[in-house]
TrEMBL record:
GO terms for cellular component: cytoplasm. One of its GO terms (molecular function) is alpha-galactosidase activity. Keywords: Disulfide bond, Glycoprotein, Glycosidase, Hydrolase. Homodimer. GO terms for biological process: glycoside catabolic process; oligosaccharide metabolic process. Residues 129-217 form the Alpha galactosidase A C-terminal domain. This is Alpha-galactosidase. Transmembrane segments: none annotated. InterPro entries: Aldolase_TIM, GH, Glyco_hydro_27, Glyco_hydro_b, Melibiase/NAGA_C. It is an enzyme of class 3 (hydrolase). Belongs to the glycosyl hydrolase 27 family. Its EC number is 3.2.1.-. The keyword Lyase does not apply.
Length: 262
């Protein structure tokens, strides 16, 4: 049984400061923004809210207590196929409850496949329970990062979402090194595209990594820390329960994400 609260949103709407200590101790999930509508515009407003207010809300999420951006509208009428993947990816980055709103009797197979994507669900359900953050935003391109298991020493694995908010009709190429994203494990990272299933092998922190992202679409990759001697092999993902005593994975990222590309 889960306890869902709406009163944090009403407090915010009334210009009151929510007592998140009390909220976390009382609620499993809580709403803090408008109700979702069956449209891409509504999904984008929620994404903007979670990015613009991340410094206030991300720290409140953890195992057993989550920010709730509202339902998934995948398979209804308001989202395209690419936009549906974008919502699924972003809700995974948010560590958000995955509550479907579609009629399961009539959902089309391609949308059902998005909702049943085990690799994306594994990111959403990662045992660390840490909510991701927007680490780059410029000219319709956003990059979001969420720390996930497994860890290697001080280095986290990450789920990275490359989100294309542009509507110019052509895919956008995003080029970045992992180090520019704050991923500095000297052994590199084993990278897999979670929608296409493409495995890029072990990528070193200073090697440039490129993705093509469709308009209003997303590329969601899993970057697992590689261990010594793992070059050319894929490190298996074996999530294990853990406590929250690790360092803050975003503590030194304030100035890393403004100058990559090219």
């Amino acid at each position: 049984m889960l306890y869902s609260c709406s009163w944090p949103f009403y407090q915010i709407y009334s210009r009151m400061e929510p007592n998140y200590t009390a909220i976390i101790n009382t609620c499993n999930l809580w709403r803090n923004f408008d109700d979702i509508q069956d449209s891409w515009e509504s999904v984008q407003r929620i994404i903007d809210y979670y990015g613009d207010n991340q410094d206030e809300i991300v720290a409140n999420a953890g195992p057993g207590h989550w920010n709730d951006p509202d339902m998934l509208i995948i398979g209804n009428f308001g989202l395209s196929y690419e936009q549906s993947k974008s919502q699924m990816a972003m809700w995974a980055i948010f560590a958000a409850p995955l509550l479907m709103s579609v009629d399961l009797r009539t959902i089309r197979p391609e949308y059902k496949a998005i909702l049943q994507n085990r690799a994306v669900i594994a990111v959403n359900q990662d045992p660390l329970g840490l909510q991701g953050k927007r680490i780059y935003k410029d000219k319709g391109i956003e990059i979001w990062a969420r720390p996930i298991m497994p860890l290697s020493g001080i280095h986290y694995s990450y789920a990275i979402a490359f989100l294309n908010r542009r509507t110019d009709g052509t895919p956008s190429e995003i080029s970045v090194t992992l180090r520019e994203l704050g991923l500095a494990n000297p052994e590199g990272y084993s990278i897999t595209d979670l929608f296409d299933g493409v495995h890029y092998g072990i990528v070193q922190p200073d090697k440039r990594f490129k993705v093509d992202v469709n308009p209003s679409g997303v590329v969601l990759v899993r970057c697992e820390v590689a261990k010594h001697g793992a070059a050319g092999a894929r490190a298996p993902f074996r999530p294990t329960p853990t406590d929250r005593s690790f360092r803050n994975p975003f503590h030194n990222n304030n100035n890393l994400f403004n100058n990559f590309g090219g």
